[in-house]
Amino acid sequence: PDATVAPVIFASDKTQLSTFSGDKQGWPIYLTIGNIRKPVRRCPSRGAMVLLGYLPVAKLQCFRDAERSLQGYRLFHYAMRELLAPLRKAGERGV
Fold first, then answer.
1. How far is 30 from 13, CA to CA, in rounded Å?
2. pTM confidence score
């Protein structure tokens, strides 16, 4: 069957979500494809990046110091798995 390979690029940078409610922060996850020229991808007004969602920023103080790093790792990978589930399905089944 016919197929097209499209390299997928993700970008993120921690951002302040609200100046009114304290220290609420998130990691926005953006998606673009690699066959878009870099000058176009990097220009926000061109719309080459789309916001997929936000990853949580958690202090994880409910865990002991020795466990925090591992739990943060698990939280990150769980959130990414959930966020990218539709893209994974499209890659496995096609669109």
1. 9
2. 0.75
